[in-house]
Structure formats: C-alpha cells, structure tokens
Design a protein that fits this description.
Structural class: alpha+beta
Number of strands: 14
Distance between the termini: 156 Å
Largest sheet: 5 strands, antiparallel
Mean pLDDT: 79
Shape: rod-shaped
Strand content: 15-25%
Number of helices: 8
CATH class of one domain: Alpha Beta
Order of helices and strands: HEEEEEEEHEEEEEHEHHEHHH
C-alpha cells in the first residue's frame, strides 16, 4: 500500500520561477494523497477550483496538502482522497514583490507650445513601480486565461498610454517648457495616478512613477544653454567681449592673419565704445552737479540779503536800508529800490 502512496504523491511548487514573472499557474494535474505544497519567500499560493478562490496561503514553508491545506479550503475541506483518485484544482503562485521597470519614449512627443507652432519635440525616460494588489481581479481578468504573466506584459500595457499621459501632464504642469525638470515631480505624480487607474482593472497597483530626465533636440538644447549664458552674464556687450576673450585664450580664434586682427579690432572698438560711454556719463553727472551747486549758492545769497535787510531796517531807525527788503537788491541811500521800486524810507 505504501508503494502506491509514494507513486501517486507529488509536489506542488513554482516550477518555472523567473524573477520577472508576476504569476505562474500549476494546473491540469491531480493532487494525490500525500502531496506537498512548497511556498518560497516572496510567493503566495492560491488554490482555485472551477475559477473560484478556495484558499490563499502566504507563509513560506513546506506543507502536507491533505492534512495542512485541505482543512482550510473553503468548499473542499471535506474532501477525502480515494485509493486511485486525486483532487483536481489549480494553484496560482503569485510573486509578491514590488517590480521596478525602466521606461523611455520611443519617439519624440510633440508638446504644444506658443514658442513653436509645430510643437516642442521632447523625449523622456525614468522608472515606474508596481505590484499585484487584488488577487480576485487578477484571476478574473488575466489568470483565468493565462498560465503565466510577465513584467514585460505590464510594460507593454503602460507604454501604450504613456505618451498621451506625458503630453497631458507636461502641458498642464510644464509652466516653463524650457525647464521641465523643475516640475518633474508634479508631472510624475499626475501620471502615476492616471496609470494606477489604467491597470487597476487587472488587479495591479502602480506604486511609483519617476521622470529621470527630459531631453530636447540638440538645436533647442543649444538655444537653452545660450540663453542661460546670456542671463548669467546679464549684458550682451559683456557677453560678446567675454566670448571673444575666451576664444582667443583657448586658441579658437588664432593665427596672424585676418581672424586674429579682426578679433583684436572688434575688442578694441567695443572697449573704446564702453570708455566713451563712461566718459559721457561722467561729464553729464559733473554738469548736473555744477548746476546744482550754483543754484544752492544763489539761494544762500538771497537768504543772506533778506537777513541783512531785515537787520538794517530794524537798527537804522529813519536811515535807508542797505538792501531792499522786497527783492534783496543792494541800496546806496536811495529812497526807492533801483531794482523793484519798493519804497525804502
């Protein structure tokens, strides 16, 4: 009798395990009395009978099916093995880890922008993370018709909608189209939420989405770099001078002929223009200062005249004031001011 028991016993385990495999189904075989179930770390074993989940086992280890598994199955707990009969069920092994997948746009995405009528051609790359979240949905939508499911299958599903989502969220969150990296976290957050809704009906959850970099065409990237250089220098004339100086120092503008002479002449002209501009500004400031000083002196003289006139009229009694109290003009003993005609006596 023991001979037949050993002959019919078998092992239920994930036989074709791959690190990039999301699930694998043990099926089309009978489980005999004395069979063992082996669950390895990072695996869950789901017993399925006629498309319905009978039990889910998550703890790693080796189990005797007829004594340690069957008593916990929902509708098969009363099953008894006969002499030459076994139990026909399917066992779905699920990889419980979180998967990380690299993604990248196959072709440039044309992002609408006012600066470029035809759109801004942008490429992007990064990673996304996912894991199995709903066993019932997974079995109903995928495992019911597939014996295995790979990470590549999920990647194909994701990349089929990724271009549209990138266009949507770059247009919405890309406030500075020439510096998208500054808004990468907001763009990635929006895409993750949309992708999670996209694969939720397969029992999978998107747990993370990252944009590592945005890539512009070379011409546009050169323009961005040049604009940044101008902004750092702050003045176009200075930028030209620095560029020319760097060119001569690096040897890019060299030779004893026309190139070097022209470079030197242009630098000399630029420097002369700057010197003349500075001199004109200095002269203009000097003239303004001189005019301001003259005006201040006249005001001081007028104030002094008024003060003297007042003191003269107060101390002189019937004598004529030395200065007209009305206009401040000097008086030499006249009864009326020779300047404004004001009566002085």
């Amino acid at each position: 009798m023991s001979f037949f028991r050993n002959q019919f016993s078998n092992v239920v385990e994930w036989e074709e395990f791959r690190d990039d495999m999301i699930f694998w189904k043990w099926s089309n075989r009978e489980i005999k009395k004395g069979s063992r179930l082996i669950i390895r770390p990072g695996q869950d074993a789901i017993f399925i009978n006629q498309g319905k989940i009978e039990g889910i086992f998550k703890d790693e280890g080796t189990y005797n099916i007829d004594s340690e598994i069957i008593p916990f199955l929902s509708t098969l707990k009363g099953f008894r093995f006969g002499f030459n009969s076994g139990m026909r069920v399917e066992v779905l092994f699920v990889n419980t880890k979180e998967f990380t997948v690299r993604w990248g746009t196959q072709n440039p995405i044309m992002i609408p922008t006012p600066q470029l009528p035809g759109g801004m051609p942008i490429r992007a790359n990064g990673t996304f993370n996912f894991k199995v979240s709903d066993y019932v949905t997974l079995i109903d939508k995928i495992a019911g018709i597939k014996t295995s499911y790979l990470v590549e299958d999920v990647k194909i599903r994701i990349t089929s909608v990724l271009d549209q989502l990138l266009m949507k969220w770059i247009s919405r969150e890309g406030k500075d189209m020439f510096n998208l990296q500054a808004n990468a976290s907001d763009i990635a957050r929006g895409i993750r939420e949309d992708l999670d809704m996209e694969v939720m009906d397969n029992g999978i959850a998107i747990t993370g989405f990252q944009v590592m970099s945005f890539n512009y065409p070379k011409e546009i990237q050169d323009m961005i770099n040049k604009t940044a250089s101008h902004g750092m220098v702050g003045d176009l004339a200075k930028y030209q001078q620095i560029s020319m100086t760097d060119g001569i120092a690096s040897g890019k503008v060299q030779g004893g002929g026309a190139a070097s002479d022209m470079a030197g002449m242009m630098m000399g002209m630029n420097l002369a223009n700057e010197m003349m501009k500075n001199m004109n500004q200095g002269q203009s400031q000097g003239q303004n200062q001189s005019q301001n000083n003259q005006g201040q002196n006249q005001n001081q003289n007028s104030s002094q005249g008024n003060g003297n006139a007042s003191s003269g009229s107060a101390s002189g009694g019937g004598s004529k004031p030395n200065f007209c109290p009305n206009c401040g003009a000097k008086n030499e003993g006249a009864n009326f001011c020779p300047n404004c005609g004001h009566k002085l006596g």
